Amino acid sequence: MPELNQEPETPMSSATAPRKMSRRNMLMIFGIALNAVAGVLFAVPVVGYIFGPARRKEMKKELAWITLGPLTQFPEGQTRLATYRNPFVRPWDGDTGNIPCWVRRISADKLQVFAINCAHLGCPVRWYPQSGLFMCPCHGGAYYADGSRASGPPPRGLFEYDYKLEAGQLWIKAGQVPTLASPPSQACADQPKRCACA
Ligand code: FES
Fold it and tell me: Could you tell which of 117, 134, 138 is best to mutate to test the pocket of ligand 1, judged by most ligand atoms within 8 Å of the CB?
């Protein structure tokens, strides 16, 4: 039996009782979070669209003349493989930032620098001096020594880099792989006297 002077048990006051979140509140918070995520996902492409042209302009400025080394590395009458480091690499790009290209030295100051990628679907082409052809291992595309299309599925010849000769070095305008949409003609337009390309 309870003692007479014992205080009766009272229910916990609302201030001290642990608050329970109602189902409605929980759903509301969940809905807000979901909307926030959807808003961010929606905003990313919009922001990209707005700032894309500015970024492209910036990248054009970044197009850089990069040396492939001393001209003496490329004997006249030969086609040799060279490699440069893409100026747009990020630290995590590793070896993928090393871009090979083919250098054909026609005469003392006349050269051609070809992108290594086939103009069909981009496989790396290989130079065969015995036959005087660039061959693509993927679908049998072939190109003549001057890069023009010889046979197979490629719709055109190999893409060429703009180049210049300076201080005994061969320089190419790199950072942008030439494509049908952006042929590498701007360098000649920019510096017609210094650019040796036709
Ligand atoms: S990728 Fe070279 S022929 Fe198709």
Answer: 138
